[in-house]
Amino acid sequence: MPAPRVLISDALSPAAVQIFKERGVEVDFQPDLGKDKDRLAAIIGQYDGLAIRSATKVTSKILERASALKVIGRAGIGVDNVDIPAATARGVIVMNTPFGNSITTAEHAIAMMFALAREIPAADASTQAGKWEKNRFMGVEITGKTLGIIGCGNIGAIVADRAQGLHMRVIAFDPFLSPERALDLGVEKVELDELLARADIITLHTPLTEKTRNILSAEALARTKKGVRIINCARGGLVDEVALRAALESGHVAGAAFDVFSTEPALENPLFGHPHVVCTPHLGAATTEAQENVALQIAEQMSDYLTKGAIQNAVNFPSITAEEAPRLKPFIALAEKLGSFAGQLTETGLKSVRVTYQGEVAGMKTKALTSAAVAGLLRPMLAEVNVVSAPSVAKERGIVVEEMTREQDGDYDSLVTVTVVTEKQERSVSGTVFADGKPRIVDIKGLKVDGEFAPSMIYVSNEDKPGFIGRFATTLGDAGVNIATFALGRDRPGGSAIALVEVDGEVPPGVLARIQTIPGVKQAKPLRF
Ligand SMILES: NC(=O)C1=CN([C@@H]2O[C@H](COP(=O)(O)OP(=O)(O)OC[C@H]3O[C@@H](n4cnc5c(N)ncnc54)[C@H](O)[C@@H]3O)[C@@H](O)[C@H]2O)C=CC1
Ligand SMILES: O=C(O)C(=O)COP(=O)(O)O
């Protein structure tokens, strides 16, 4: 197999290049490419992986051209520059490095707070201009002030910790912050209105989502305390920049420090030029330490995925460690094949699919296995679906996906059952993985069998009557089809029976129709795996 190829299209630390190479991944380092979307679109089709920071915008248009792409790695935290639904729909894993730059970014927010409180940038410019305006700059003390943190996750929590070290009172608004965690962090959890009314300084640390966009709107700004200072080191778009400018002009807001802007690169912005505004060009993560951390980590994660199938910190797929990957692999194949079996037999509208895990397999990454089963199920109907995209494709089509785990209670250490409910019927198939690592099908619609999955198979359900096997074999023989393996199952003598037959090569047209005419045959279907 040729080595996987990765394109680095943003200014990652060159440390990443070394890691990729050491791990058998070819790497193309073009740190400015992300800014040129046409060139990126022109070459992205050659790569299995794309490593980015915030300058590369991975839009659905870029993804349409990314025919070989398997993984996008964000050397940093925010993935709002990636169209995640579009990546997921194309089966591309999107991973980030959720902690590598959080201390550095929190430190930047604290630095911005001091810059605002003591007007350091303006004082610096004035001093170096030879003005010595000692009376112009009158700061405010940080000690004893109330810091309002909007979004108290990884970065917000570090900011809270540092602020407490500075003897500030810390209040936080974050709907997902548990009272226990708030207590642990020593912050007072409050509603947004209370934060706005009480904070002397507000700092934002939420991702940009439809819920957080414009969280500091004109109305919200109007509810803040007079003389408040506002820091945004999270994402442009969280604050209404025009309304903030007006509030600065009126003197209601005493100062603002922004690292991120609604349009980036921010070559102009409503906040620019105000004497109490401090700006940096998206430098939150820009320290040598943080950049090394995120570059090394993303290169490791992407290499592990491309070479070993391990998944860490994916925002659109469950994690699978490098140790788990080989153990999971045969079960992924099993789940996909069971799903495929059910999908190939499905002729009417799919309503729901239930995947049941019994025994040892119940302790594995069942979410990944369920995605594989759904991918296998949908593939006979939709060619472009894979393990990553399957859950979202199913959801889009209104197919309910359920997962159940149970204790082992049968002959097998592990048993996976895929049950498909269509408009007409419910059908289950079960399988396991034997010690040889090969997936086997062990139960079809409650009838026990023991069959392997083969590239070309015929499935027959029939009444258990003498003469069927002879006629069936003759029909195939007459058509020049060689039987490779033959697995039979039935519920009771004379009851319902099934045959799962592996044949060499394609089943010629017309053969299935002839099988269908054998007395007692209810259904005959070709299957491919
Ligand atoms: N300026 C820069 O260079 C950098 C900026 N960032 C930005 O900082 C953001 C935060 O990063 P982390 O703390 O690591 O993320 P995180 O996911 O650990 O924390 C985000 C917090 O926001 C909270 N949240 C979500 N929706 C909310 C809402 N509607 N109202 C209030 N809180 C809400 C979440 O519950 C979570 O606790 C990132 O999403 C990224 O956009 C991150 C790194 C560098
Ligand atoms: O990690 C993040 O979310 C950041 O915003 C850092 O962005 P950058 O990698 O410096 O372009």
TrEMBL record:
It catalyses: (R)-2-hydroxyglutarate + NAD(+) = 2-oxoglutarate + NADH + H(+); (2R)-3-phosphoglycerate + NAD(+) = 3-phosphooxypyruvate + NADH + H(+). It holds the Pfam family 2-Hacid_dh. Residues 327-445 form the D-3-phosphoglycerate dehydrogenase ASB domain. It comes from the Bacteria. Its EC number is 1.1.1.95. The keyword Disulfide bond does not apply. Pathway: Amino-acid biosynthesis; L-serine biosynthesis; L-serine from 3-phospho-D-glycerate: step 1/3. Residues 6-316 form the D-isomer specific 2-hydroxyacid dehydrogenase catalytic domain. Residues 457-519 form the ACT domain. Residues 110-284 form the D-isomer specific 2-hydroxyacid dehydrogenase NAD-binding domain. GO terms for molecular function: NAD binding; phosphoglycerate dehydrogenase activity. Keywords: Amino-acid biosynthesis, NAD, Oxidoreductase, Serine biosynthesis. InterPro entries: ACT-like_dom_sf, ACT_dom, ASB_dom_sf, D-isomer_2_OHA_DH_cat_dom, D-isomer_DH_CS, D-isomer_DH_CS1, D-isomer_DH_NAD-bd, NAD(P)-bd_dom_sf. Transmembrane segments: none annotated. GO terms for biological process: L-serine biosynthetic process. Belongs to the D-isomer specific 2-hydroxyacid dehydrogenase family. NCBIfam families: PGDH. Catalyzes the reversible oxidation of 3-phospho-D-glycerate to 3-phosphonooxypyruvate, the first step of the phosphorylated L-serine biosynthesis pathway. Also catalyzes the reversible oxidation of 2-hydroxyglutarate to 2-oxoglutarate. This is D-3-phosphoglycerate dehydrogenase. It comes from Enterovirga aerilata. The lineage of its organism: Bacteria, Pseudomonadati, Pseudomonadota, Alphaproteobacteria, Hyphomicrobiales.
